Fold this sequence. Notes:
Blueprint: E1 4-9, H1 13-24, E2 31-36, H2 39-48, E3 53-57, E4 59-60, E5 63-64, H3 65-74, E6 81-85, H4 90-99, E7 103-106, H5 112-174, H6 178-208, E8 217-220, H7 221-235, E9 240-247, E10 254-257, H8 259-275, E11 279-288, E12 295-302, H9 309-312, H10 336-346, E13 350-355, E14 361-368, E15 381-387, E16 406-409, H11 413-425, E17 430-433, H12 436-445, E18 450-453, H13 462-470, E19 480-485, H14 490-499, E20 503-506, H15 511-529
Parallel strand pairs: 1-2, 1-3, 3-6, 6-7, 9-11, 16-17, 16-18, 18-19, 19-20
Antiparallel strand pairs: 4-5, 8-10, 9-15, 11-12, 12-14, 13-14
Helix pairs in contact: 2-3, 5-6, 5-11, 6-10, 7-8, 8-10, 12-13
Amino acid sequence: MNTLRLLIIDDDEDDFLLTSDLLNQVAGQPVHATWAESYEAALAYIRRDDHDICLVDYRLGAHDGLELIKTAVALGCRAPMILMTGQGDHSIDLLAMQAGAVDYLVKGEVDAAMLERSLRYALERSHIMQALIAAKATAEQANKAKSQFLANMSHEIRTPLNAILGSAELVQAACTDPEVREYLQIIQSSGAMLLNVINEILDFSKIESSEVHLERLPTVLDDLLENLAGIFQTLARGKSLTLTWSRDGAVPAQIYSDPTRLRQILTNLLSNAAKFTSEGSVTITIALDEDQPRRLRFSVADTGIGIASASQAGLFQPFHQVDASTTRRFGGTGLGLAICKRLVEALNGTIWVESEPGHGTTFHFTLPYEPVVENTALGAKPTYTTTDSTNEQATASSPDVEPLAILLAEDNIVNQKVTIAILRRIGYRCDVAENGAAVLEMVRQRRYDLVLMDLHMPVMDGYEATRHLLSAEAATERPIVVALTAAAMAEDRDRCRAAGMDDFLAKPVGQKELLDVITRWRETIEARRHEPVRSWSL
Length: 538
C-alpha cells in the first residue's frame, strides 16, 4: 500500500507534534509527515511538488495560510490543501474555500476520525480533479485534431474545386453550343452545391466549438435585402419563382448588428425556401416585433410543400432531415437550420417555424436591435419583386482603365492556368511566382501593383513572404497583397490579417470575385503610382 505523503505547514512545533499523533491513529494507510516550520520553507517544499496533501496552519508569522494557499495555487500546486486553525470562525472557512482550500478544520475540535475523513475527501477530490484535467486535455486535443482535419479537408477540396469551377466558367463564356453550355451549367451548380456542403460543415464545427466571434457594425437593411435578392437568382435558377422583399416603415434603415451572420441566417432560410418550393413565391419581410419592444422580426415565407407538425420539433437539430428515407427528394446536410438556430441565439434572438403541409412554410426570428442614429432615414422600403427569368450567367466587363502590374503567387499549375485565363478574360495580365521566395525576387526586379498570394507554397509560404514585403524599407511602395487561398477557416483570415495582408479571397474564385477585389483596391493603387520609385531592401 502506498504511503500517504503529508506536508504539515505550521510555525508551532507543539501543534506539529499533536497533528502527527493524530496521524498515527489514522487507520488503513501508512502516513509520512514532513514539517515546514515557516512560510518560506513551505513554498520551497511546494515547488518540489512531491506531497499528496498539505495541512496549512492559518497563522504563519508575518503571513497567513490563506496567502500561502493562493500562492501555491498560482504556482500550479496539484496537492489538495486543508486549512487548520485554532479559531472556529466560519468567515475564515469561506475565505479558505475561496482561496483554493478543499477543507477547513478547527484544531481544538478535530480528532483522528475527523482528520481521516478530511484526508480521504481531499484525496478523492484530488483524483477527480486530476481525472477532469486529463479528460479536458484529451478533449482539447481531440477538438484541435478535428479542427485541423476540417481545415485540411476544406483546403484539399477547395483547391481542385477552384480549377473545376473556374474552368467551367471560362469555357461556358466562350461556348455557343446550347447542349455543352447546359452541361457546363450542371458542373457549376453541382460545384456550388459541394462548396455549400463544405461551408455548412465548417460553420457548424466552429459554432459547436464556440469559435464564432460576433461583430457589432452598422448594417444597412435595404442593402442586405437587395443582396439577398441577388443570391435568390442563383438559388432559384430554373424555377418559376418570384421573390418579394420589404422593410416596414417603422424599422430603422440601419441597425447595429453582425451583417455577415445576419446575411448567413437569411441566406440559409432563403435556400430552404427555394429548395422546397417548385413554383410560386418567396417573401422576406422585416418588421417590428409586436410582442416584444426593441426587437425586429425577420420572416421568410414560401408557398412550397410545407412541413407536418410532427416533423417541426426536430427541424433545428443538427443533421435532421424531415424526409430521411432513401427515396427522399431533397438533399442537404441537415445543418442549415441548426446553424441558423445557433447564430440567432448567439445574437440573443429566437427562431421558430409556422407551417402546414401543402400550404407553405414561414420561418421567423427576432433579434434585439439598436438603430444607427447618424445618417439614418426612417420610412418604408418599397416592396420589390424579382422573378428568375434567365439562365444566362452575368459576365464581367473589361476595365477601360490603365493596366495593372499583377503578380500571381501560386504553386498549383492547374490553378495557375485557370487564374491567368480568368484575369485575361476581365482585361488583365499577370506574372507568376511559384513560391514566396520567388515573389520577393520578382518584386526586387519590378514594381508590382497587386500580388495575389497563395498561403501554402513550398520554399516560403505566403505569410512569410508578406511579412518580408512589409518589412522592406520602401514599405509605402509595396504592392497590395490579397490572399488567394483554399485555406478558408476564420483562423486563416486572422493569420492573413496579422501578417499584414490587405484582403482575402477564398477559393474557389471566379471572375466576379477577382474583378471586385481589383476594383476595390484600384484607387489605392493609383495613388501609390504617383510616389517616386526607390530601391527595395528585402
